Please model this.
Amino acid sequence: MNKAIARADIDEFYSENSIADWRAVLGPRMHYHFGLFRPGASAVSDADMDVALDRAIQVLYPHIPKGSSVLDIGCGWGGPCGLLREERGCTVKGVTISHAQAEYCRSLGMDVIHGNAEQDSTMFPQQVDVALMMESLGHMKDKEKLLRRLRACASKLVIRTHCSLVPQDAAFAGTAYIVTPETMRECLQRAGWNIEVWFDRRVESMPSIDAWQARVERLSDDALTGHLKLFRRWCAHILANPRAWAHSHPHLEIVAT
Ligand SMILES: C[S@@+](CC[C@H](N)C(=O)[O-])C[C@H]1O[C@@H](n2cnc3c(N)ncnc32)[C@H](O)[C@@H]1O
Model:
């Protein structure tokens, strides 16, 4: 039975493996989210995956105006922040619970807060054009509370997140809380958001698992500890029956104002 783990442990969960090992799995920009592939894509190469990872952010550009201010909650190693700065001229502030991610992002010149986005003591800017949550909302236990806080400081919300037809508390080694699409919709509405886009990306995103598995299998056994070890098991679990997993895990893109 999975158990919730302390927030400090989530920092460690995202900080323990080396940057080099994460780069071998996530690619040069260190995007930790699913890529989006053209329909019918299979047998993906590393290069295809890197294009698909960028594309997963680029398809959001119609919702993120050029030059806008963006608060990226759960910014990872800065993959999405980097593209938004370079290709959209956005001013981006990231938030991550991981000290290693914050340090890495700062080394690239990014403006990042190291803190737990679920705690009020982690201060957000007073007003931004867009709050972005790229595959990070699943980690938040009290989604409605965070979404309500973001309502007070952001004009628009752009999210990509997995849901599950069967809710999963404390999934992924106790770090994730995966709700049904219905619960997700209710959380957003109760938090005061008006949903404008609700789109399921699961068909386009599934080839990512093959690409990740190929990359993670190339790592040495020494590297396969902690989060990366779990990640390898998770890829293998999904690939045992990808259709069934995809069927039960909608991958939602949500834009709300
Ligand atoms: C799957 S990664 C996504 C990273 C990034 N958005 C990307 O697309 O590359 C999830 C991110 O959420 C962050 N995170 C998880 N729980 C958090 C919390 N309570 N507060 C702030 N960040 C959190 C993790 O540190 C990690 O950066």
The mean pLDDT is 95. Residues 10, 14, 31-33, 74-76, 79-80, 95-98, 101, 116-118, 134-136, 139-140 surround S-adenosylmethionine (CB under 6 Å). The longest strand covers residues 154-162. The chain has twelve helices and nine strands.
